[in-house]
């Protein structure tokens, strides 16, 4: 649905979404990178398990919660990407041990 | 409809009494305040709880036992009548203990309570750490947890659904509810009471004052001094997590939806419902001491509510001697006691007099002359 309009050039970094390497641009948000993927969703809800994608992009709606480098329920739209970042789409309720 | 009886206060206590009166075919009108008021019913933790309650007041222990014994039947009728699932579970409840002295102290406290009540076998047991781990295998406890007391009769429910169901039950059984209806003054006209609110006057033969912290000012107008003070309690709530805590614990319970409620502080700050970082820090630290893995859970809410506390912490149930037909029902444990309020208390109010078994809860116990 979304695509990058320019080549990030030397600002390119690699992040991992559910283990898959993905090219991103330093400074953009995790949510923006997620929206560019063929599967643009970020999590499934704790109750109905339906999919959610980044929506407000400004920290208000909490639809873009993902696990980032082991920390759960992080707002993807407020988190800039870093090289080597590991992003995991959240499935339903998190487990306590996660 | 001209009401037979008006209940002042639409929280869990007033709504339970009004529901019970409606079930008994009384023409009941419930007057609820507005959203700007201190609504303890909407800040509640949701325990339906016995263990540890009533030290020095065996009548309170008996009252709590009575209500818990009624809870399943009360719940079934309310759920059938309204279609609202109260999420009530009574699989027992835990109080975690720190260190060997904590475990021993808890055992002594519960033994003392048992001896004061002195009926039947204990309905609680002490669990050492390994028994506790067997009971809740999904939790890796912190190193200082030595065990827990386990109360067989303890349970929990969704207190907001309880309140909604009580309101629904009142309407279903022919009662009425008015919101934003704050009673400004109570007068009398012959043997009737006159309630003044928003320029309107309601005339009714009987009233029940169950207005929480707003009760003293109203009760005084029917000849009753009911001493209550606000006690602030603060609660934290986490994001929804996969089920790990199958039993409620004092200060820690996982709801049906998965959120973890963490409670609760106690302080006297007057009519102040603001939250403090001091409280969130203390609550968080104590919780992580019990379940270290909760350190990674996200907190999504933090709120404060005001408990309705009498000087001894126990309820007040009374009828005015100078103004017969005016009752007061006040307590802190409105959820646990909801079944009693809807059944035995409503029955007694409908009959016009409170039984001797409730005499321990008369507000005259606070009169100075009795203190000697």
| Number of helical elements of chain A | 1
CA-based shape of chain A: globular
| Overall average pLDDT of chain B | 95
Helix percent band of chain B:
25-40%
Q: Describe the biggest sheet of chain A?
A: 5 strands, mixed
Q: Structural class of the secondary structure composition of chain A?
A: mainly beta
**Number of alpha- plus pi-helical segments of chain B:** 8
Strand content of chain B: 15-25%
The order of strands across the largest sheet of chain B is: 8-2-1-12-18-17
Instruction: Say what oligomer this is.
Output: heterodimer
User: How many beta-strand segments of chain A?
Assistant: 7
Output the helix-strand order of chain B.
EHEEHEHEHEEHEEEEEHEEEHEEEH
Low-confidence stretches of chain A: none
Radius of gyration of chain A: 13 Å
Report low-confidence residues of chain B grouped into runs of 5 or more.
none
Find the biggest chain interface: A-B, 12 and 15 residues
What is the β-strand count of chain B?
18
Run of helices and strands of chain A: EEHEEEEE
């Amino acid at each position: 649905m979304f695509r990058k309009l320019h080549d990030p050039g030397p600002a390119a970094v690699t992040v991992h979404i559910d283990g898959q390497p993905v090219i991103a641009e330093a400074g953009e948000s995790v949510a923006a990178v997620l929206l560019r993927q063929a599967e643009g969703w970020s999590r499934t809800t704790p109750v109905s398990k339906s999919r959610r994608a980044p929506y407000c992009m400004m920290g208000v709606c909490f639809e873009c919660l993902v696990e980032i480098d082991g920390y759960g329920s992080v707002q993807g739209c407020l988190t800039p990407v870093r090289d080597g970042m590991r992003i995991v789409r959240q499935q339903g309720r998190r487990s306590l041990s996660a | 409809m001209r009401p037979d009886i008006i209940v002042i206060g639409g929280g869990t206590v007033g709504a339970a009494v009004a529901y019970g009166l409606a079930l008994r075919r009384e023409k009941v009108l419930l007057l609820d305040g507005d959203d700007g008021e201190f609504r303890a019913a909407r800040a509640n933790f949701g325990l339906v709880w016995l263990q540890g309650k009533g030290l020095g007041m065996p009548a309170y222990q008996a009252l709590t036992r009575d209500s818990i014994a009624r809870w399943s039947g009360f719940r079934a009728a309310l759920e059938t009548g309204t279609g609202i699932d109260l999420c009530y579970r009574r699989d027992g409840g835990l109080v975690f203990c720190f260190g060997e002295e904590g475990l021993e102290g808890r055992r002594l406290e519960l033994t003392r309570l048992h001896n004061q009540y002195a009926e039947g076998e204990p309905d609680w047991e002490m669990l050492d750490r390994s028994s506790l781990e067997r009971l809740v295998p999904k939790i890796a406890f912190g190193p200082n947890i030595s065990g827990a007391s386990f109360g067989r009769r303890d349970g929990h429910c969704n207190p907001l659904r309880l309140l909604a169901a009580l309101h629904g039950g009142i309407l279903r059984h022919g009662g009425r509810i008015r919101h934003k209806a704050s009673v400004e003054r109570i007068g009398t006209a012959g043997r009737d009471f006159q309630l003044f609110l928003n320029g309107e006057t309601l005339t009714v033969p009987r009233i029940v004052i169950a207005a929480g912290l707003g009760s003293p000012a109203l009760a005084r107008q029917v000849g009753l001094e009911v001493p209550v003070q606000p006690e602030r309690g603060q609660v934290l709530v986490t994001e929804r997590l996969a089920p790990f805590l199958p039993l409620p614990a004092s200060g820690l319970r996982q709801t049906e939806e998965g959120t973890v409620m963490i409670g609760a502080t106690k302080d006297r700050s007057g009519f102040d419902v603001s939250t403090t970082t001091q409280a969130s820090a203390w609550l968080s630290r104590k919780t992580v001491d019990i379940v270290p893995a909760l350190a990674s859970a996200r907190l999504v809410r933090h709120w404060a509510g005001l408990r309705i506390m009498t000087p001894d912490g126990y309820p007040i149930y009374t009828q005015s001697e100078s103004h017969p037909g005016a009752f007061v029902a006040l307590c802190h444990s409105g959820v646990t006691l909801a079944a009693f309020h809807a059944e035995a208390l409503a029955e007694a109010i409908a009959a016009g007099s409170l039984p001797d078994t409730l005499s321990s809860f008369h507000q005259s116990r606070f009169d100075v002359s009795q203190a000697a």
